[in-house]
Automatic annotation (TrEMBL):
Source organism phylogeny: Eukaryota, Metazoa, Chordata, Craniata, Vertebrata
Organism whose genome encodes this protein: Nannospalax galili
UniProt protein name: Olfactory receptor
Gene responsible for this protein: LOC103732068
Top-rank taxon, per record: Eukaryota
Annotated TM spans: 27-52, 73-92, 104-122, 143-165, 199-223, 244-267, 273-293
One Pfam family from the record: 7tm_4
Ranges where the G-protein coupled receptors family 1 profile domain occurs: 43-294
């Protein structure tokens, strides 16, 4: 976008796209996103309510699960205003500063999720490899400190992003490729020197996703070694079963991230709809799946849900 004298400038508003090529049947697209948001918000609120109300769930594992549910609510609520405005009301404009705020919160909650999954892997490591010291290691104060550290790390590393974008001029239009604001998307319409943005963005990705994923893999390597040392086959299966929910949550989070990265780097000629759909999977599927995974695979959560249903019927 150019000003009247031909110089680049910052637009007052940016235009959101939605799903390229999907012009008809927008009502079905809107309904799909509404269902995703409904499942995500209701599911995560239910997990939080269960952990708060049920004394049997006042344990480190479920405190970390509460953090994950709270973070997933943040991811959903960060994208909800512009996604529903785009698909339900066909309102495709967002203020430039509002876009920067949304970008910051989307990325912050996404990076926090990686840290929470790492904390949950540490919880499983202590529970299986050193069960006698589980309560002594994961005290309430340490769990709170871990949660605050995850928040502080994500907030501090993402805080420069809006300012790095704010300093850039825009000369390639004001049309974004999604129904929400992401840092890589904004870089595509910015002009000038974006090397600082790219270098810092790569640093943040490696410092968070890269480091967290390595430590998650290390935790499970140690867990697997400890499980294989258990003589009883039944006890081995029981120990591994306590990790299934977390493993599914890790896969639901990291597989879309890896897929998006691979497509971006090795399939640059992919249709725009492929990039948009993969980014949507990365943002919308984990918050929806996590409550379902833990409700299906965790006996205590199932019991709590059945208890609440029984109370509502009496």
């Amino acid at each position: 976008m150019l000003s009247l004298n031909g110089t680049p400038f910052q637009p007052d508003t940016l235009q959101l796209t939605g799903i390229p090529g999907v012009q008809t049947g927008q009502a079905w697209v809107a309904l799909t996103f509404c269902i995703l948001y409904f499942i995500s918000i209701i599911g995560n609120l239910s997990i939080l309510a269960l952990v708060i109300r049920e004394p049997a769930l006042h344990q480190p594992m479920y405190y970390f699960l509460s953090m994950l549910s709270l973070n997933d609510l943040g991811v959903s609520l960060s994208t909800l205003p512009t996604v529903l405005a785009t698909f339900c009301f066909n309102y495709r404009h967002v203020g430039f500063d509002a876009c920067l705020v949304q970008m910051f919160f989307i990325h912050t909650f996404s990076f926090m999720e990686s840290g929470i999954l790492l904390a949950m892997s540490f919880d499983r490591f202590v529970a299986i490899c050193n069960p006698l010291r589980y309560a002594a290691v994961l005290t309430n104060s340490r769990i709170l400190a871990m949660g605050l550290a995850i928040f502080a790390k994500s907030f501090a590393t993402l805080f420069p992003f809006p300012f790095l974008v704010k300093r850039l001029p825009f000369c390639k239009g004001n049309v974004l490729h999604h129904a929400y604001c992401l840092h890589p998307d904004l870089m595509k319409v910015a002009c000038g020197d974006i090397r600082v943005n790219n270098i810092y963005g790569l640093f943040v990705v490696i410092f968070t996703y890269g480091v967290d994923s390595v430590f998650i893999l290390l935790s499970y390597a140690l867990i697997l070694r400890a499980v294989l040392a258990i003589a009883s086959r039944e006890q081995r299966l029981k120990a591994l079963n306590t990790c299934i929910s977390h493993i599914c949550a890790v896969l639901a989070f990291y597989v879309p991230i890896i897929a998006v990265s691979m497509i971006h780097r090795f399939w640059k000629s992919a249709p725009a709809v492929v990039h948009v759909m993969m980014s949507s999977v990365y943002l919308f599927v984990p918050p929806m799946l996590n409550p379902i995974i833990y409700s299906v695979k965790t006996k205590e959560i199932r019991r709590g849900i059945l208890k609440l249903v029984h109370k509502s019927q009496t």
